[in-house]
Write a sequence for this structure.
């Protein structure tokens, strides 16, 4: 079952400002090279142009290609956020609660689902937190709780 990411104005403004900043840096780099440099021999010019162009591509990809998939074949929650992918096994998810957050790059809305899951980090199991924003949040939570049997209520 695939859920697109919900979007709201707050996150749109955030992404738009990030996009404008990246576009400005890219434009100024190109302007500097054209106006003040004899050639593209300076590697710093290349690096700055490629870095800002890469940032533009990442921002657009994150905004356009974010979705969440409950994959019953692999027993995972598949999270696609632009160029980034996270696969979380159902059995590792310990908390799934609806909340409101402005932070969280895997979400495009302030109406999020907070997921806590166990992740192996340097041979130690630690709890990781991720914020996602499926479009049908309540339906998503019901479906996820049917699949992830280890979900417990969040301690407040």
């Amino acid at each position: 079952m695939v859920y697109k990411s919900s979007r709201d104005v707050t996150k749109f403004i955030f992404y738009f400002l990030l996009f404008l900043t990246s576009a400005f840096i890219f434009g100024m780099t190109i302007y500097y090279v054209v106006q003040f440099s004899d050639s593209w021999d300076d590697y710093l010019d290349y690096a700055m142009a490629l870095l800002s162009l890469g940032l533009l591509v990442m921002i657009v990809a994150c905004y356009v290609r974010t979705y969440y998939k409950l994959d019953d074949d692999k027993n995972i929650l598949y999270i696609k956020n632009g160029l980034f992918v996270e696969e979380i096994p159902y059995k590792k998810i310990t908390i799934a609660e609806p909340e409101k957050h402005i932070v969280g790059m895997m979400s495009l809305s302030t109406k999020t689902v907070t997921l806590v899951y166990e992740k192996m980090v340097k041979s130690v199991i630690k709890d990781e937190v991720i914020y996602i924003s499926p479009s049908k949040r309540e339906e998503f939570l019901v479906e996820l709780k049917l699949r992830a049997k280890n979900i417990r209520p969040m301690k407040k």
About this structure: The longest helix spans residues 9-36. The mean pLDDT is 84. The radius of gyration is 19 Å.
